[in-house]
Amino acid sequence: MSFLAALDNAWAASSSMLCVGLDPDLQKLPDGISRDNRGIEDFCRAIIESTADVACAFKPQIAHFAARGAEPQLERICKLIRENHPNVTLILDAKRGDIGSTAEYYAQEAFDRYGAHAVTVNPYMGTDSLEPFLARGAAIVLCRTSNPGGSELQNKMIDGLPVYQHIARTAAETWSKIGQVGLVVGATFPGELAEVRAIAPALPLLVPGIGAQGGDIEATVRAGRDKNNRGMMINSSRAIIYADSSRNFADSARAAAVSTRDAINAVS
Amino acid sequence: MSFLAALDNAWAASSSMLCVGLDPDLQKLPDGISRDNRGIEDFCRAIIESTADVACAFKPQIAHFAARGAEPQLERICKLIRENHPNVTLILDAKRGDIGSTAEYYAQEAFDRYGAHAVTVNPYMGTDSLEPFLARGAAIVLCRTSNPGGSELQNKMIDGLPVYQHIARTAAETWSKIGQVGLVVGATFPGELAEVRAIAPALPLLVPGIGAQGGDIEATVRAGRDKNNRGMMINSSRAIIYADSSRNFADSARAAAVSTRDAINAVS
User: Fold this and answer.
1) Preferred mutation among A130, A153, A178 to probe B, highest tally of B CBs within 10 A
2) Residue A7: is its pLDDT beyond 70?
3) Domain coordinates of chain A in residue numbers?
4) What is the Cα–Cα distance from A133 to A142, expressed in whole angstroms?
5) Which of A158, A155, A154 is CA-nearest to residue A141?
6) Contacting residues for A177 by C-beta, under 8 A, at least 6 apart
7) Which CATH number applies to B3-265?
8) Tens digits of per-residue pLDDT, B149-159?
9) What pLDDT is recorded for position B188?
10) Would you say the ipTM is above 0.90?
11) Chain B residues touching A145 at Cβ < 8 A
12) How far is CA A6 from CA A31, A49, A135, A137, A200, in A?
């Protein structure tokens, strides 16, 4: 199933636009979980099992695994998501970007090794650096990021448009004709999120920045939803997975996920 | 030893501005090398031992390892370079870029796990996405890339300058004050390489694109060298490591490396 079909299915099955970010941090693992790679796997498995029915996507952030050599654990976590939770999409958050022949290897990593439906990618190197992802699965392209430095290049004007709007337009007009594409747009700037939605009315938006990063859910949903009242994967990582550092962490993560989903769905 | 000191040392010890790119491709491995992860390690080890004294840098491209789960092999290859060849710098070609808290994990991956002196990074997300690399080792920032799509964003004008020159100026004026920084500028555009050198007279330039990608050595060296007739890591991957598919591949790789180094040094 293609990414867009899987995402449509996931929105319908879960009634949720929540994306649960899997960013395991050894120092934050809850009580009862060992502080090693095995603990990372145990922790992620518990979070996945407790939140899968209220999420449209899981988004493992690969650096949290790669820093510690936990790729085998990431492989098993991804396999668990694909096999046990077919109604949830799997987005590998890797922000890849390289010349075409190298991007082919990164596409193998994302789609063959980890079984991702989609992977986050960086647009700085242009179309040929995205094509292997567009051709083989789906590329979710960095557009307007939620970090402090995001505005440095992304808000500069080119051809009368800020860089991030130029990227949104290229995604909507060019990259979407090559393959399946989405955009990363931070929740910290709802006005800019609305501008991206206007430029790219049909593209799915991956929206980090609610929860720990401070973005407001109501403003985010109003700005980013599509005409079907869907169209977003609203990511929360820390506020859900570290909701509780006790042995009840999985139940607390579920409660945080349900409450976030409900807050998203309550926006009129 | 810092990256810039190590690079100065490497240029002096090897009399070479050649960077040997380690891009192992299972389909291109020479006779006598098994077509598996062990073969990748054996192949890279042989290339390293045969070319280390005529190179200022080795640049493993991480996707070629990550696509196949060959991270343990990459770890051992990097360890070999650092332990047996202290006069050569180690650049992890990973083109990382993410929000600060995630970039910390990528910095751990590059510097702690693989022992790199420097890592290639993508500037799209701005200063805080580069800081962990600048603080802990060195960041070699994508500026003007050699691929077909490189001009799409990089040649757009912002504030009266093409994007790539804006990045070069920010690197020279801002990022170099935070930590150690270099720039990636392709050999396929010598005019643009000369412009970057004028903007950033003191920054080391990692220059891919000679050899298989078609860049001209003489034009590249004239455009990119600094006032000391150094300042470049001129990368060649395929033209050196796949110089010969027979069992003599290591000798042939050495011959190709020597001849490339000599061609670089012959430019008056």
Assistant:
1) A153
2) yes
3) 3-265
4) 14
5) A154
6) none
7) 3.20.20.70
8) 999 999 999 99
9) 87
10) yes
11) 99, 124-126
12) 35, 19, 16, 11, 20
